[in-house]
């Protein structure tokens, strides 16, 4: 029987994406053997994230400041807004450095199967941002999955009456491809070749 502390850490790690109970237990043992080095580093990194990271109430990004460094960066084009499903997608797109505007993170995608409706995503906040004015172009950068595309169409319909240029990432993205997994060249190409929704 492992101690309560080990069980608690193993079961917390086992809930991480991509880690099952077996690999979680192996990770715990690995850390215990390196308690003065890797374990201390991990504990400090976790505490740093816990203590300092907040969600930006404007765009949904995760940063050390609210509003985040992207929302407050004066060099960014406030007239262009890129809508993504998850923070990981925002980071992936921002690494490509081709989009100079700001972002809006939905916090997921519409899914009848998983019971995710519009009220579960930050679509209301997005509409409020757009209705407040000052934005000319909205880039719908949903993943090329069925649910991602359903979400993009839903948003396009909801903002149909606003005076905006609505574009989406060019097709040619692999179907089912998650933005986060694409190489930067492919992402940049999809962004450069973005086309009007319609
Ligand atoms: Zn922000």
UniProtKB/TrEMBL annotation:
SMART domains in alphabetical order: TOPRIM
Family matches, as Pfam families: RecR_C, RecR_HhH, RecR_ZnF, Toprim_4
UniProt record, GO biological process: DNA recombination; DNA repair
A single MF term (Gene Ontology): zinc ion binding
Residue ranges covered by zinc fingers (C4-type): 56-71
Entries under InterPro entries matching the protein: DNA_Rcmb_RecR, Rcmb_RecR, Rcmb_RecR_Znf, TOPRIM_dom, TOPRIM_RecR
Gene3D superfamilies: 3.40.1360.10, 6.10.250.240, RecR Domain 1 (1.10.8.420)
Keywords carried by this UniProt record: DNA damage, DNA recombination, DNA repair, Metal-binding, Zinc, Zinc-finger
Domain Toprim: 79-174
Family label: Belongs to the RecR family.
Role this protein plays: May play a role in DNA repair. It seems to be involved in an RecBC-independent recombinational process of DNA repair. It may act with RecF and RecO.
NCBIfam families per the UniProt record, alphabetical: recR
The protein's name in its UniProt record: Recombination protein RecR
Species in which this protein is naturally found: Novosphingobium fuchskuhlense
